[in-house]
Amino acid sequence: MKSKKLLFPYTVWMAIFVVIPLFMVLYYAFTDKSGAFTLENLQYIPKHLPIYWDSLKVALISTAICLILAYPLALIMANMKASMQRMMNMLIMLPMWMNFILRICAWVIILRPNGILDSILGVFGFGPNTIYHTTTAIVIGVVYNYLPFMVLPIYTSVSKISRSVIEAGEDLGCNSFNVLRRIILPMSIPGIVTGITMVFVPAASTFVISLRLGGYSLIGDTIDQYYKGGSFNMQAGSMLSLVLMVIILISMAIMNRFDNGEDAGIV
Amino acid sequence: MKKTVSGVYLALIFFFLYAPIVLMIFFSFNSNATQITNFESFTLKHYIDIFKNENLMNALSNTLIIAFLSSFFSAILGTCGAIGIFNLRKKARTAVLNVSNLPIINPEIVTGISLMLIFILIFGKNLGFFTVLIAHIVFNTPYIVLNILPRLRRMDMNMYEAAMDLGCRPFQAFFKVVLPEIFPGVFAGMLIAFTYSVDDFVITYFTGGSFQTLSIFINNSLKKGVKPWMLSLSGLLFLIILFVLILMNIREVIEEKREKNKVKI
């Protein structure tokens, strides 16, 4: 196993299909249609700042909601019998295995005018819902799609905490709130960091969810429009993708400072 | 008290996770094909329609073929990669691993676009089956690598040396000693790769040209509105997934019991 030859095909593969493609994005971002170097494409950034802000807002709100929903769930799960834990794991994974577009489709038929929610509300004499085609609808869609990505890493890190550490805390006079605050919470930070990144990244770059449920474009949809939609402009699309990537890499670098480098299990 | 609170909490979360699926399945039996959420009468017609819909069947088989092939090839590539990375010194290892993880860390849309650009450069406008396959291998391989590395770390390297001393050639030693040791990791990675591949929309969308997988086909149809077959398809998928999960669970329980019995002896 001394042979490093095995690494060779992998590095070549990565060079061609991971590294060079990213440089292609960089290339298109800083060239014009004839291929000459230009800074002209930078003009697309200020034009789209409001959309970046909208996307960031949706991502932050959704990530926060996922974290708030997931943490108690992970705690409850970690305290169950082993067989129940496995079952819970399975139940949380299951919706994730349904097709991504079908999950969005489900929320379309629930939220749209005269949809399921409206008929339920109608029975109780409440007016039609006003959620469809708003930011709230996007947040619901994002949380629904990515909640399992928050639950599972947190659950993994909480369930690794040894029972004796918690008992030691109790013996030393911690009440259950202090056990949570001083032992469980700090020890589950790697899981929280993994969970946040696994929700935040797809949430910030989401497309389709925003267009179908929110009825308006976030940055993902805008980039899509430049590549495959009506307003074809690869240079603009590349510049916007580049900025998106930089924003996300910076956010992740900030997040990782909270983590002491231990790798919490990626699902 | 504590138990009731957590019970209610669990119920709410599972209501949120499952209500949309249950509703889809409920209305998949609705005979009213124009107003799909106005329940008229019970029918299985939409389930039969799935199998009559040639484009849908075609998209489904494309999805499965891509998922099988991409998880298979990423397993080979990822195993090479993981062993290679494992043998590097610490600094080089971190560097290579960081690049290797890029497709996981990067937003999917950026991975999709960057791959589309390189494919256009290499293949011209001929995007399709082959480019989608490559793209799926690209984003699946890191999951395989990440699942194998911990196994390699836990492995006793003396075993490999011993095999070599006993006359194995390197690749024999690999197949007889190393592979059995890391195989659970490879397999777990392949399962993850398979599910991600089946579920993928964004990367296929950018790298596929007119090639249609299930996600792409449903998305194109969704533009024209929700159709009854989308609901029955959800029902069918749910059934299949549930079946597979229960099988896997039973297998795990049996294996655990076997382990326990071993300890007793």
Written account of the structure:
The complex is a heterodimer of chains A (267) and B (265). Chain A has a single domain, classed as Orthogonal Bundle (MetI-like fold). In chain A, 73% of the residues lie in helices and 0% in strands. In chain A, α9 (189-204) runs antiparallel to α12 (234-256). Chain A is an all-alpha fold and 267 residues long. By secondary structure, chain B is an all-alpha fold. Chain B has a domain at 44-225: MetI-like fold (Orthogonal Bundle), CATH 1.10.3720. Chain B is globular. Chain B is built from 12 helices and no strands. In chain B, 81% of the residues lie in helices and 0% in strands. The interface between A and B is large, with 81 and 82 residues.
Using brief descriptors, characterize the structure shown.
heterodimer, A: 267 residues, mainly alpha, 12 helices, 0% strand, globular, disordered C terminus, B: 265 residues
Average pLDDT for all residues of chain B:
90
Order of SSEs of chain A: HHHHHHHHHHHH
| Largest sheet: number of strands, sense, barrel closure of chain A | none
Helix content of chain A: over 70%
> What is the SS-derived class of chain B?
mainly alpha
The CATH topology of chain A comes to: MetI-like fold
For the termini of chain A, the CA-CA separation is 28 Å
Extract low-pLDDT stretches of chain B: none
Number of domain units of chain A = 1
